[in-house]
Amino acid sequence: MQQPGRAAEIKAIGIGKSFGSFRALDNLSLNIGRGEFLTLLGPSGSGKTTFLMILAGFVQPTEGKLFSDGTDITDRPAEQRAAGMVFQGYALFPHMSVEANIAFPLKVRKKSAADIKKRVGEMIERVGLIGHEKKLPSQLSGGQQQRVALARALVFEPGVLLLDEPFSALDKSLRGQMQAEMKRLHQETGTTFVFVTHDQSEALALSSRVAIFNHGKLLQVGAPDEVYDRPDNRFVAEFLGEINMLPLKGVKPADNGSTGLCEDRAVNMHCKAEKVRGDAILAIRPEHMSIAREAAAGENGIAATAIASTYLGAATKLDLTTRQGAKVTVSVPNEVAAAALSKGNSVWLTWPAEKGFLLPDGGQ
Amino acid sequence: MRGVLSDRMGAALLMAPLLLFLILAYAWPFLGVVKWSFTLPTPGLGQYQALLTDDLVQSVFIRTLRIAAIVTVVSVAAAYAITVVWVRGSPAQRLIAEFCILVPFWISVLTRAFGWVALLSNRGLINTWLQSIGFISEPLTLVRNEFGVVVGMTHFLIPFAVFPLASAMRSLDDRVLLAARGLGSSRMRTFWTVFVPMTRSGIIGSALIVFVFSLGFFVTPAILGGGRSVMIAELIYLRIFQSPDWGLGAAISVVLVLFVGALMALLFRYVKPKQLI
């Protein structure tokens, strides 16, 4: 988090934080690679913001160590770490112009007036704020304030940029625009980005890796498709999007993955049955299931009855019940949904073996 | 009440006794004072002309402005420090600060003025102590001059300066201070370049309220000034009750009220009334 112009590599080892008897963060170990775009994802109170504040140096961990490029920075105060930070609500200096806000970190570093002028000018151009230099934050729109906050946090070329739910106050269309802009800034600067959000689609869209938090614990870290398609546990599976869970019996390893009984029919999974044996849960995303007249021998399938549909425009969400009463939701083309509903009786739900994954039975 | 009286009617009725009292006890008699200033001893603008030429009146006006300005600077600076502790300190620090701010409120202005006399007079605590440790040989003149007046008034006015400052500091977003530190600014620099400018409205409100109060001070300057450091309010008293010159006393009063009124108008441009409590 020091040498300007160079992305930092951060290593957290066994970080924990207690506020009185409340355990905000528990035994967290995580490596953040140079130039990576890491998202910390979780519901409120999951510990993701506490971890960000520990990275920034605003919160002192109760235990554990933090390294930046191999240097122990656990006890280093925030002003000496100089990670760029964008706060929720932006936290711009209300009494300073756009220009003065962006110049602030450079003035603190005692850069020459000419250097400050040049770098502030470049940054203003880069975030598209030309013509707004002399305005006060209160005279700007939410999106423009966001850009000032980004410019101010990046102008001194920090090794890492920390972002605390920066888009939560923006409306949906502006959010999309700012997300694209942030991705561009990440590519242009090459800096390590650590981004906090509770919005799973934002996390999946932006990051090179996602770290999912719940109740102060880091549950899983991985590339977006990795955590979405192969979650380690039920919380991650459910938090990242809608998911169907079917009870599975007699799970055991098989050639090329594992096998088990789903409502008395044998099904195959490509994933290994390492962590689970016997009873387990088979999880499948709604968009990975399709409706068929019947399932061929050897194909994964389960019989179900369509009970309701929700028209979503591009597709229809169809709710079904299996013979043994499990509820399943699928996302299918509109005409397929209509056909399934009009039949009134049994259809088959099928899915490819690589799209179903195993979760331990019950809870996490 | 609801359904019988509209909210506005209810509010008007609740305020009526106070308004009536202010009109009868304050506005109406003041109109009488305005009338005197134009009619005594002879009708005309003579008293206002005298104000412009009378050396004594002018020197008292200048002294009043000077004392008020010094008291304002000292009070606001001291209040700022104590308010920072009161609003942002640890729970124990807050309690101590609150105690220091509120206790003076419970002691009468007269008691406090005499208290300062006991501390500051030639044979008072401070002089006898300084002499006993051999720091000075002759007592310092600490009362019956402007110094004593400034000390007494500052002590009285600090709590009033605290409230607008506290209100400004409480409404400040903590994340802005964190942002400054995160961007590399030391605590000291953050205080001077971010915290202080962001409490500007509180400083202005606090300074104006202290200044306005100082202009009309009577008891403290009368006791701690000992007749040698006469301020405007005391001069009005002397003109009305000692050297009966009601017309001039009335004219000074009118000028003072207009001046204070203008300052109050300025005050409410920067601070909402509820921030002053």
UniProtKB/TrEMBL annotation, chain A:
The keyword Secreted does not apply. One of its GO terms (biological process) is quaternary ammonium group transport. It holds the Pfam family ABC_tran. SUPFAM superfamilies: MOP-like, P-loop containing nucleoside triphosphate hydrolases. The keyword Lyase does not apply. It comes from the Bacteria. Residues 10-240 form the ABC transporter domain. Keywords: ATP-binding, Nucleotide-binding, Transport. Gene3D superfamilies: 2.40.50.100, P-loop containing nucleotide triphosphate hydrolases. SMART domains: AAA (SM00382). InterPro entries: AAA+_ATPase (IPR003593), ABC_SmlMolc_Importer (IPR050093), ABC_transporter-like_ATP-bd (IPR003439), ABC_transporter-like_CS (IPR017871), Mo/tungstate-bd_C_term_dom (IPR008995), P-loop_NTPase (IPR027417), Transp-assoc_OB_typ2 (IPR013611). GO terms for cellular component: ATP-binding cassette (ABC) transporter complex. GO terms for molecular function: ATP binding; ATP hydrolysis activity; transmembrane transporter activity. Belongs to the ABC transporter superfamily. This is Spermidine/putrescine ABC transporter. It comes from Rhizobium loti (Mesorhizobium loti).
